[in-house]
Amino acid sequence: MSKTGVFIETTDQEIKQSVFGVISAAAAGGGEVTGFLLDGRADKYKDQLAACGVTELVALEAKDIDFSKSPQATGEALAKGATDFGISALLGVSSPTGNDVLARAAMALKAPLALDCMDVDFTANTVKKSHFSGKAVATLEMTGALFVCGIRPNSFEAVESPVTIKITPHTVEVENSDAIIVTEVQAADSSRKDLTEATVIISGGRPMASSDNFKILDECARKLDAVVGASRAAVDAGYAPHSMQVGQTGKIVSPKLYIGCGLSGSVQHFAGMKTSKVIVAINTDKDAPIFTKSDYGIIGDLFEVVPALTKELEKQG
Amino acid sequence: MRIYVCVKHVPDTAANIKIVGDAAYDTEVKYVANPYDEYGVEEAVSLVEKNKKGEVIAVCVGDKGAANTLKAVMAMGVHRSILIKTEDQFPGSDITAKALCKAITDDGGADLIFMGKQSVDGEGMQTPYRLAAEMGLPVATGIVAFSHGGETVNVQREIDGGAKELITIKTPCVLGAAKGLNEPRFPKLPAILKAKKKEIKEMDLADMGLTDQGQCRLKSLEPVQERSNAKILEGSTREIVASLVQILKEEEKVI
Ligand SMILES: Cc1cc2nc3c(=O)[nH]c(=O)nc-3n(C[C@H](O)[C@H](O)[C@H](O)COP(=O)(O)OP(=O)(O)OC[C@H]3O[C@@H](n4cnc5c(N)ncnc54)[C@H](O)[C@@H]3O)c2cc1C
User: In what residue span(s) does the Electron transfer flavoprotein alpha/beta-subunit N-terminal domain sit (chain B) (predicted)?
Assistant: First the structure.
């Protein structure tokens, strides 16, 4: 049986939520799923991983190397693991870290690579991904014994599929180079959560008019368990940090629900969120282009509609 | 100091893309320099301006029309350009990297290489890694801050939720620029006129003696179906939000 490898990305000693969807995609592909872990906490994660179908968890280690400081060693270790365990497709989440590690692994493996994929077919060895800022979907065919693929967060639902899991510590030899070193990780200045993993997002555009006004979105977000995003116009005007920008030159997101408040509906903004399941637009202008690309529209002032929505959610509990 | 900037000639993100045949599109659209590459251009040019010495060379794998994109980045301050000609808009990151590597090496070799973290047409996100692998250099992409320290450079890359990684890389190295790195300049007329006279050295990709592994092939392109008109919710604000919550909860089941 073919074996699919999944890079188990962790942050702050937790498995990244979207990793589970990737595991489910791998399990649905028919092969056995082997997880590759680089943070050494196999015991902590094993039950969660077994629950969604990981049959073997490979805990990679390399002598004298701190993977958190060496992205190159991380990629090379993952590549060695994939080779040593006979993997035919290596998957991970297309997050900033996931993309970086997968790309470095693919280079070490001299393997084909596709990042930010929305679908993958393990029989045909094809993936589907966006081209032209979300205006087209490309099918790419990968050749060779092994391909590497990053999956856009939230592209696959995590499904339970319990199996028994085996933990295999595995030491690999990789070069201990100081050509590239992570010297520090600076936490985000805001308390806001990560957009790319969010299942509900509420975003504000240019008419937010100040960073203070984003509070009304924060309040609504708390009720919706949502993360707050922004358009580039709002970011460039200084109302929100760049890390909140959704779109072509910002974050690519795929939540279940996207509520756009005061967005015109630009191609570049939609490039980052059009794969959302449901899009709701709030805009004062009935002719705003966003109303032609959303599922539900509310013609109204966001400063009235958003607080009313917050209240309604509060009422319904 | 010699800095190379890799630039792709891509359809404007606002352009309407019409798919023709299985895996092609109507190329009669407006083309621009890949927006991410412009951050790389700006960083390279301003570094040379600050040091008051050095040269910035743009390298592009693209068709004849790419000369216009090269003129545009030369108007931003790039000194000269190399155009590696191919008719294929998606030659594959493997062959692209090999061609860029050969052109840069033959031209004298780099102290630094900037490029965008991804192109806005193929969205491959991997050419920096492939070029670095070809050249045997370290690489980092998604760079939002850069400072040059001679033997090393310090960069920042944004990771999850706005957190940042601070990275030190030995030079020469390959850096993939992201938005936030700088504000690319808008060239003024004299700079645009001057750029017209700058050198573009042309060569053909087919003549470079490179073999394409063809590991990843574009099989088909399909247009994405846009949503049709939104269902407009009517009534008073209170009625509207009540019906929205009900729809999201009961019909769509997304909250
Ligand atoms: C290369 C490139 C990359 C880009 N990348 C991105 C990107 O990543 N993300 C991104 O977002 N943009 C991006 N842009 C910019 C994009 O083209 C638009 O300019 C931007 O998205 C517009 O932001 P907006 O919708 O907030 O503002 P506007 O276009 O100004 O729209 C504001 C809307 O709010 C409505 N409005 C006004 N007041 C209210 C109110 N009180 N209540 C409700 N509605 C109100 C108006 O009717 C209008 O429709 C990019 C552009 C380029 C060229």
Answer: 22-212
